[in-house]
Amino acid sequence: MSWKDDAHRRQRIRGRAPEHGGHPADPDDARSPLYARDLWEEYDANALAADARYHDAVLDVVGRVAAVDRDRRGRITVVLTVGRPLCGVRCRFRDDRLDEVLLLRKGCAVWVRGRCAGASDGSVDLEDCAVLQHAGPSVPPPEMATA
To answer: Which is nearest to 140 in space by CA: 59, 36, 14, 25?
Structure first.
Protein backbone atom coordinates (compact mmCIF):
# COMPACT_ATOMS: atom_id res chain seq x y z
CA MET A 1 0.00 0.00 0.00
CA SER A 2 1.48 3.34 -0.99
CA TRP A 3 1.60 6.31 1.35
CA LYS A 4 -1.02 8.04 -0.84
CA ASP A 5 -3.40 5.07 -0.46
CA ASP A 6 -2.78 5.01 3.29
CA ALA A 7 -3.40 8.77 3.60
CA HIS A 8 -6.60 8.46 1.58
CA ARG A 9 -7.80 5.58 3.78
CA ARG A 10 -7.10 7.58 6.96
CA GLN A 11 -9.15 10.46 5.59
CA ARG A 12 -12.14 8.11 5.41
CA ILE A 13 -12.00 7.47 9.13
CA ARG A 14 -13.68 10.32 10.93
CA GLY A 15 -14.37 10.76 14.57
CA ARG A 16 -14.43 8.32 17.39
CA ALA A 17 -17.32 6.62 19.10
CA PRO A 18 -19.31 8.94 21.35
CA GLU A 19 -18.23 8.58 24.97
CA HIS A 20 -21.77 8.94 26.26
CA GLY A 21 -22.75 5.68 24.56
CA GLY A 22 -24.98 7.33 21.97
CA HIS A 23 -25.48 5.93 18.51
CA PRO A 24 -22.68 6.81 16.06
CA ALA A 25 -24.85 6.75 12.95
CA ASP A 26 -25.76 10.16 11.59
CA PRO A 27 -27.35 9.92 8.12
CA ASP A 28 -26.20 13.46 7.28
CA ASP A 29 -22.54 12.65 8.00
CA ALA A 30 -21.14 11.76 4.56
CA ARG A 31 -17.94 9.72 4.44
CA SER A 32 -16.37 7.30 2.00
CA PRO A 33 -16.96 3.67 2.92
CA LEU A 34 -14.42 0.89 3.37
CA TYR A 35 -15.07 -2.43 1.71
CA ALA A 36 -15.68 -5.24 4.20
CA ARG A 37 -13.04 -7.41 2.55
CA ASP A 38 -10.40 -4.62 2.74
CA LEU A 39 -11.10 -4.02 6.44
CA TRP A 40 -10.91 -7.73 7.21
CA GLU A 41 -7.67 -8.14 5.19
CA GLU A 42 -6.01 -5.35 7.18
CA TYR A 43 -6.89 -7.13 10.44
CA ASP A 44 -5.77 -10.46 9.00
CA ALA A 45 -2.40 -9.03 7.93
CA ASN A 46 -1.64 -7.25 11.23
CA ALA A 47 -4.31 -7.01 13.91
CA LEU A 48 -2.25 -4.66 16.09
CA ALA A 49 -1.71 -2.15 13.29
CA ALA A 50 -5.37 -2.38 12.23
CA ASP A 51 -6.51 -1.84 15.83
CA ALA A 52 -4.27 1.22 16.11
CA ARG A 53 -5.95 2.63 13.02
CA TYR A 54 -9.58 1.56 13.45
CA HIS A 55 -10.39 0.55 17.05
CA ASP A 56 -13.21 2.73 18.47
CA ALA A 57 -13.45 4.65 15.17
CA VAL A 58 -16.87 5.05 13.57
CA LEU A 59 -16.60 3.39 10.15
CA ASP A 60 -18.75 3.14 7.06
CA VAL A 61 -18.42 -0.35 5.60
CA VAL A 62 -19.96 -1.78 2.43
CA GLY A 63 -20.30 -5.43 1.52
CA ARG A 64 -22.61 -8.33 0.80
CA VAL A 65 -24.73 -9.92 3.51
CA ALA A 66 -23.66 -13.46 4.36
CA ALA A 67 -26.04 -13.95 7.33
CA VAL A 68 -28.71 -12.16 9.36
CA ASP A 69 -29.33 -13.60 12.81
CA ARG A 70 -28.90 -13.13 16.55
CA ASP A 71 -25.59 -14.07 18.16
CA ARG A 72 -25.19 -16.25 21.27
CA ARG A 73 -25.96 -13.26 23.49
CA GLY A 74 -29.14 -12.48 21.57
CA ARG A 75 -27.76 -9.39 19.81
CA ILE A 76 -28.95 -8.64 16.26
CA THR A 77 -26.03 -9.48 13.97
CA VAL A 78 -25.45 -9.09 10.24
CA VAL A 79 -22.32 -10.75 8.85
CA LEU A 80 -20.72 -9.30 5.72
CA THR A 81 -18.83 -11.74 3.53
CA VAL A 82 -15.09 -11.38 2.93
CA GLY A 83 -14.64 -14.35 0.62
CA ARG A 84 -13.26 -16.72 3.28
CA PRO A 85 -15.24 -19.40 5.12
CA LEU A 86 -15.98 -18.71 8.80
CA CYS A 87 -14.65 -15.15 8.47
CA GLY A 88 -16.38 -11.83 7.94
CA VAL A 89 -17.32 -8.46 9.32
CA ARG A 90 -19.88 -8.87 12.13
CA CYS A 91 -22.19 -5.88 12.39
CA ARG A 92 -24.13 -5.76 15.65
CA PHE A 93 -27.30 -3.71 15.95
CA ARG A 94 -29.26 -2.50 18.95
CA ASP A 95 -32.80 -3.84 19.24
CA ASP A 96 -34.27 -0.46 18.28
CA ARG A 97 -32.66 -0.92 14.83
CA LEU A 98 -34.50 -4.20 14.12
CA ASP A 99 -36.69 -2.63 11.39
CA GLU A 100 -33.57 -1.78 9.35
CA VAL A 101 -32.23 -5.32 9.62
CA LEU A 102 -35.54 -6.96 8.70
CA LEU A 103 -35.14 -5.52 5.17
CA LEU A 104 -31.83 -7.32 4.57
CA ARG A 105 -31.43 -10.68 2.85
CA LYS A 106 -28.46 -12.95 2.26
CA GLY A 107 -26.57 -11.74 -0.81
CA CYS A 108 -27.83 -8.16 -0.78
CA ALA A 109 -25.40 -5.25 -0.89
CA VAL A 110 -25.41 -3.07 2.22
CA TRP A 111 -23.74 0.08 3.56
CA VAL A 112 -23.39 -0.02 7.35
CA ARG A 113 -22.05 2.51 9.86
CA GLY A 114 -20.74 1.30 13.21
CA ARG A 115 -17.99 1.58 15.82
CA CYS A 116 -15.07 -0.78 15.27
CA ALA A 117 -14.56 -3.07 18.27
CA GLY A 118 -11.53 -4.92 16.88
CA ALA A 119 -11.34 -8.51 15.72
CA SER A 120 -12.08 -11.87 17.32
CA ASP A 121 -12.67 -15.43 16.13
CA GLY A 122 -11.68 -14.61 12.54
CA SER A 123 -14.08 -11.69 12.19
CA VAL A 124 -13.94 -7.92 12.54
CA ASP A 125 -16.60 -6.57 14.89
CA LEU A 126 -18.65 -3.41 14.44
CA GLU A 127 -20.94 -2.32 17.30
CA ASP A 128 -23.93 0.05 17.47
CA CYS A 129 -24.51 -0.28 13.72
CA ALA A 130 -27.05 1.36 11.46
CA VAL A 131 -27.98 0.48 7.87
CA LEU A 132 -27.38 3.52 5.66
CA GLN A 133 -28.27 1.93 2.33
CA HIS A 134 -29.07 -1.49 0.91
CA ALA A 135 -29.90 -3.06 -2.46
CA GLY A 136 -30.94 -6.45 -3.78
CA PRO A 137 -28.33 -9.08 -4.54
CA SER A 138 -28.29 -8.47 -8.28
CA VAL A 139 -28.28 -4.66 -8.42
CA PRO A 140 -25.77 -2.97 -6.08
CA PRO A 141 -25.93 0.81 -5.92
CA PRO A 142 -23.09 2.66 -7.74
CA GLU A 143 -21.24 3.34 -4.45
CA MET A 144 -21.00 -0.39 -3.85
CA ALA A 145 -20.00 -1.50 -7.35
CA THR A 146 -16.49 -2.82 -7.71
CA ALA A 147 -14.11 -0.95 -9.93
So the answer is: 36
Q: How confident is the model at residue 30 (pLDDT cuts 50, 70, 90)?
A: low
* Closest to 65 (Cα-Cα) out of 97, 93, 91: 91
Residue 23: inside a domain: no
Residue 112 lies in a domain: yes
Mean pLDDT in residue range 61-80 = 95
pTM: 0.73
Identify the band that residue 134 occupies on the pLDDT scale cut at 50, 70 and 90.
confident
Task: Please state, in angstroms and rounded to a whole number, the distance separating the CA atoms of residues 114 and 18.
Answer: 11
**Cα separation of 128 and 37, whole Å?**
20
Number of structural domains in the chain:
1
* Gap between the Cα atoms of 74 and 26, Å rounded: 25
The neighbour count for residue 64, using CB atoms within 10 Å, is: 20
Upper half-sphere CA count for residue 8 (Cβ side, 13 Å):
8
Cα angle value 132/65/130 (rounded, 5°): 25
Range of the domain at 91: 55-141
